[in-house]
Each structure stands twice: as structure tokens, then as C-alpha cells.
UniProtKB/TrEMBL annotation:
<dbReference type="GO" id="GO:0008198">
    <property type="term" value="F:ferrous iron binding"/>
</dbReference>
<keyword id="KW-0862">Zinc</keyword>
<keyword id="KW-0560">Oxidoreductase</keyword>
<dbReference type="GO" id="GO:0016702">
    <property type="term" value="F:oxidoreductase activity, acting on single donors with incorporation of molecular oxygen, incorporation of two atoms of oxygen"/>
</dbReference>
<comment type="similarity">
    <text>Belongs to the DODA-type extradiol aromatic ring-opening dioxygenase family.</text>
</comment>
<keyword id="KW-0479">Metal-binding</keyword>
<dbReference type="InterPro" id="IPR014436">
    <property type="entry name" value="Extradiol_dOase_DODA"/>
</dbReference>
<protein>
    <recommendedName>
        <fullName>Extradiol ring-cleavage dioxygenase class III enzyme subunit B domain-containing protein</fullName>
    </recommendedName>
</protein>
<dbReference type="Pfam" id="PF02900">
    <property type="entry name" value="LigB"/>
</dbReference>
<dbReference type="GO" id="GO:0008270">
    <property type="term" value="F:zinc ion binding"/>
</dbReference>
<dbReference type="InterPro" id="IPR004183">
    <property type="entry name" value="Xdiol_dOase_suB"/>
</dbReference>
<feature type="domain" description="Extradiol ring-cleavage dioxygenase class III enzyme subunit B">
    <location>
        <begin position="42"/>
        <end position="243"/>
    </location>
</feature>
Length: 280
């Protein structure tokens, strides 16, 4: 098999599941998988990450030179609150992102009041543990449908050719009421596997409209996502690809029984991850 030169392909866009904040100290299979992605892809010039934990009515782009780490959770072990991710920010990139969104008709603005919440810094600790790649966070509009988030991704997709990694961080399934909180390794809930298989089938078929309407047609959709903010970032990642139908599914199983921790790489650059095994 011939190899593909890394510099001949744009960076893929990524959807990663960050699951529980405990991922930061309990890597399980997901931590090594994310580390393998970061080690396999060409080093990006910067990262734009969307997390469901920063919700705004219109797009906001973090423009801090040194983004603060936000421990936006409660009731966890003290060690979790001591973790940091001192990556530099990228104010010029933030303005570039905001302008692209404005050019596409969205009322985007830069914002210095947020930082990096756990949906951003927890997976990034595994993807780029040296915290030496500039990062900006883009807010989520959870009141908007999947098609809107796909459009946001489309407006930013050209950044991949500039060496910018576009990441949607969420959770492939996210029903906190069904967690087995004392058993992180309790296996897969059957209804989450049925939901995953439906997505994989529709992705393989290139059926974007069905995916956009997943909430009314996918099996156990509302059970897996009582609210859908943790899956909307998947549609951002799809839109951010040069060709979302070219994709690689990276399976790291479930945690706490009902949190699927799947990751996806979209676009022609996803072949970089298909060429060699990514640790899981």
C-alpha cells in the first residue's frame, strides 16, 4: 500500500467525546486514543474548538492571549481542580474566525470573558499534552438545529488548509441520569449501540438530511440526548471538513455504561488516521 504524504492533505476536522470531567484523571481507552490522534496528525498552527459548555445566543470567539482554564463542574475529587492547560491563545486567529463568520452572515464577535472550559481543555490535555499549540474556543448556539452548526463548520472549513485544526468536543451519547457513576467500565448500554449504528449507517450512505433530522428518526435519540448540545458539535465537525463523507470512526467504547466516547475524523485528511492504528 502506498503511503500518503501528510503535507499533501488538509487537516481533518475532528469530533471528540469528552464524557465526564473525570476523563482528565481516568484516561481509560479514550485518553490513549486522543493521544494517538495528536501524535499522528501533522502539528497544527492553531486549534479552534467548540464546546457545549460555552453557550451563547450568537457566536463568540475567545480572544485571550492566555486563556484561563475553567473548572466548570462541582463535586469531583480535589485533584481535578488543580489541573491546568496553559496553552497560548491566538487573538489574531480569533478575529480571523469571527470575520469569516461575519462574512457568512452570522453576527460573530470576539470575547475576552471566557477561556477554556472542560469540554476544551480535558481532551486537549491528551491531544497536545505539551500545551504548546495556540487554542481559541468558539461558543455554541444550542438553540439552533444541526444544519446551523454544519453551516458554521462550513464557514470555517478553509482554515484547515492554513494549518488550523477544527475540533468539535461533545459526547456521542449524553444522558447523565443513566450513568453508573460507581462503575466506569460497566460496558455498553444496548440503546447507545443502536444509536451509534444508525449514525454509522447514515454516514456511510452520505445521508446528510437524515443525520440533520436524527432527533425524530434515530433509535433512542432523545434517551441518548435529553438535550442535544453535546451532539451539535458533531455537525460542526462534519461541516468543517472539505468532504464530510470521507470519515474515520475511532471507537473507544463507553464509560459509566451510557456515555459513548466515540471520535470521528472528517475530510480527505481523515486518511491520515486510517493509515495506521490509533491507540485505543
Amino acid at each position: 500500500m502506498s503511503t500518503i504524504a501528510a503535507d499533501s492533505l488538509p487537516l481533518p476536522s475532528l469530533f471528540v467525546s469528552h464524557g465526564s470531567p473525570m476523563l482528565a484523571v481516568e484516561p481509560g481507552r479514550t485518553g490513549p486514543l486522543l493521544a494517538g490522534i495528536g501524535a499522528t496528525l501533522p502539528r497544527p498552527r492553531g486549534i479552534v474548538v467548540v464546546s457545549p459548555h460555552w453557550e451563547t445566543f450568537t457566536p463568540r470567539v475567545g480572544n485571550q492571549a492566555k486563556p484561563r482554564v475553567i473548572h466548570d463542574f462541582g463535586g469531583f475529587p480535589p485533584a481535578l481542580y488543580e489541573l491546568d492547560y496553559p496553552a497560548p491563545g491566538a487573538p489574531a486567529l480569533a478575529e480571523h474566525v469571527a470575520q469569516r463568520l461575519r462574512d457568512g452572515g452570522l453576527p460573530a464577535h470576539t470575547d475576552g470573558g471566557w477561556g477554556l472550559d472542560h469540554g476544551a481543555w480535558v481532551p486537549l490535555r491528551y491531544l497536545y499534552p505539551q500545551a504548546d499549540v495556540p487554542v481559541i474556543q468558539l461558543s455554541l448556539q444550542s438553540q439552533q438545529p444541526p444544519a446551523y452548526h454544519f453551516q458554521v463548520g462550513q464557514l470555517l472549513a478553509p482554515l484547515a488548509k492554513e494549518g488550523i485544526l477544527l475540533v468539535g468536543s461533545g459526547s456521542f451519547t449524553h444522558n447523565l441520569r443513566e450513568l453508573r457513576r460507581n462503575d466506569a467500565d460497566s460496558g455498553d448500554a444496548p440503546h447507545t449501540l443502536q444509536f451509534l449504528q444508525w449514525f454509522l449507517d447514515r454516514m456511510q450512505a452520505g445521508d446528510r438530511d437524515a443525520l440533520f433530522g436524527y432527533r425524530t428518526t434515530a433509535p433512542h435519540a432523545v434517551r441518548n440526548h435529553p438535550s442535544d448540545e453535546h451532539l451539535l458539535t458533531l455537525f460542526f465537525a462534519m461541516g468543517a471538513a472539505d468532504d464530510w463523507t470521507q470519515l474515520v470512526h475511532l471507537d473507544s467504547g463507553s464509560t459509566y455504561h451510557s456515555l459513548r466516547m466515540d471520535a470521528f475524523a472528517f475530510g480527505t485528511g481523515s486518511r491520515l488516521l486510517a493509515q495506521q492504528p490509533v491507540a485505543a
